[in-house]
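fyi for ur records
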Amino acid sequence: MDAVRLIAAGRHALAQSGAAMDIVGEAWQAQALTQGIGSWLAVTGPPELRSEARGLGEAGGRGCGVLDTAALRGEGSAPDLPPRAAQLTGVADVRQALLGLQALLGEVGIALVGVACATDDEGLYWQCIESIDAADESSDRVRGVLRRLTVRERGSASGVA
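which gave:
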């Protein structure tokens, strides 16, 4: 499935999440998708974006490591949700995918702030704080790829390769 559709599905799922653990699970899904899109662009995207995209994939991977929904429930060490990112087949429109991913990560951060403010569970609180930082780092990486994409497009428009 194309990245833009997966991002839209993630945004919808996050908007439908009400329980704290559902929101944390969707934050994990968003980071897994960030990792997948970054990795995909690093391997098959435009050469000028590959270095920045590799950093995006790494940031998404670190964000996945921060979120441990199953451990909070005492069920083990990994989220019990299959990653939406496993359905990623491509990134047809790089700019739209990155803009959508940036919006998703912003929404994840806002939702996690709500969870952190509403919980009395210290473990969940700190996990949310770390996850907010991870979403912010991933969002910074998305901005970096977007900047590189803009430079590439301006160079192409002016005839410079």
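The radius of gyration is 16 Å. thats all i got for now
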